[in-house]
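Bumping my old thread because nobody answered last time. Still need a sequence for this structure:
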């Protein structure tokens, strides 16, 4: 049922030229160099350690690996993290 609703939202977003991340509550990941990441439309932090962070999203958790992580900003749907990033991936 949820797939039909999401498909309908996707069609409407395309017709109205609205960004899919807004219409479907999908994550938007912005990376600045190798030192700052902002994730919009997150659903909370699953794991936070010095060398790995897992952030929950509507799709799948996002795993960020690196070193010296620090949360610069966290809000209801946006999080900004600094550190030295080696990889960003969706968990399988």
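Sorry it took so long. Here it is:
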């Amino acid at each position: 049922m949820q797939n039909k609703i999401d498909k309908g939202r996707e069609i409407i977003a395309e017709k109205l030229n609205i960004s899919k991340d807004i219409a479907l509550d999908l994550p938007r990941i912005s990376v600045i160099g190798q030192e700052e990441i902002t994730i919009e439309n997150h659903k909370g932090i699953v794991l936070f350690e010095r060398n790995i962070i897992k952030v929950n999203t509507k799709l799948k958790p996002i795993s960020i690996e690196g070193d010296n992580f620090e949360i610069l900003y966290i809000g209801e749907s946006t999080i900004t993290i600094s550190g030295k990033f080696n990889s960003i991936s969706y968990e399988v």
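Residues 2-16 form the longest helix (15 residues). Let me know if any region looks off to you.
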